[in-house]
Amino acid sequence: xxxxxxxxxxxxxxxxxxxxxxxxxxxxxxxxxxxxxxxxxxxxxxxxxxxxxxxxxxxxxxxxxxxxxxxxxxxxxxxxxxxxxxxxxxxxxxxxxxxxxxxxxxxxxxxxxxxxxxxxxxxxxxxxxxxxxxxxxxxxxxxxxxxxxxxxxxxxxxxxxxxxxxxxxxxxxxxxxxxxxxxxxxxxxxxxxxxxxxxxxxxxxxxxxxxxxxxxxxxxxxxxxxxxxxxxxxxxxxxxxxxxxxxxxxxxxxxxxxxxxxxxxxxxxxxxxxxxxxxxxxxxxxxxxxxxxxxxxxxxxxxxxxxxxxxxxxxxxxxxxxxxxxxxxxxxxxxxxxxxxxxxxxxxxxxxxx
Length: 354
Hints:
Layout: H1 32-41, E1 65-71, E2 73-76, H2 78-87, E3 91-94, E4 111-116, E5 126-130, E6 134-138, H3 142-152, E7 156-159, H4 162-167, E8 170-177, E9 183-185, E10 188-192, H5 196-229, H6 231-239, H7 247-265, H8 281-293, H9 296-353
Parallel strand pairs: 8-10
Antiparallel strand pairs: 1-6, 1-8, 2-7, 3-4, 4-5, 5-6, 9-10
Helix pairs in contact: 1-6, 5-7, 5-8, 5-9, 7-9
C-alpha cells in the first residue's frame, strides 16, 4: 500500500484526514469540570488562527511542482527511521547535497535526506525528515503524504492529533530558474536549476525554514486549544462567580504551559541560527530571509506573549485556590478549638454539680 499510493502526480490537497491514524498530542483539552462549566455558561468559542487556504486548481501549473510540509510529533527516532526507510521500496536515505562526503561531518545530525528510488516524472522526489518531528516533501502527492503519516507513526515520540497534523500542513509550489540565486517570488519558490550542489543546498535551507514554520504553527494550534480550555475561568472572574477549577487542574495547566515554553525556547532552533549555516554565509542569508518570509520571529514573540499572559492567569488561580485552602484550614482549627473549649466547659460543669 505504501508503495502504490506514491505513484500519483502532485495535485491540490483533498480530504485525507480520515486516512490518518489517530494520534495523541499535548493534553490541552479542558477537564470535565471546565467543559461542563463552559457549556453551561454559553461562552462563545474563540476564533481560531486561520491559515491561508489552499486554492484548488483544476490541475498542476506548468513547470511547477508542490512542496508540502507537516509535523506529526514532538520528535522522530531518526536512527530507526533511517533504517526503516532503507527497507522500503520507495525511498533511499542519501547525502544532504551533491558532492558531499558521507564520511565527513558535512550534514546536520538531526535530519535525514531521502530520495525516491524511482521517478514517476522527470522531476525526482526529495524528502527531509527533521528530528523535531517535521517532514518536508518535494514533488510528493497528497496520497503519498497520507501514507507517510501512517508510516511515521511507529517512529514518533509525542504524536499529535490528526486534526492538528492536517490542519497545520503547509503547501507551496516551486520551479527552476536561470537566475544566479534561489528566491521566493509571489508565494512560489524559485530554485537554481544549473548547479546541482547549490540547488540541493538551497532546497535543504528552504526545507529547514519551512519545517520551523510548520512546527511553530503546530505549537500555535496547541496553545489556541489551551486558551480555549481556560476561557470559562476568565469569564467566571469577569462575572464575579466562584472559580470552577481544582488545584490539581491548575497544576496540570501550569505544567502544560511550562512544557510548551520549554520546547519553543530551549529545545528548538527557533531562537538560534543552526550550526550548519555558520560557515556558509550565503546559505545563512537565504535561511534568514526565508524565515522572515514565514514571519517566524514575529510569530514567536506573539506566542511567548500569549504564554506569559496564560502564566499570569494560572498563577492568579493558584494563589486564589491556595488562599481558599488556607482559610479552610484556619476555620478547621477554630472549630477544633471551639470543640475543645466546649469539652472543658462540660468538664468544669460536671465538677461544679458534684
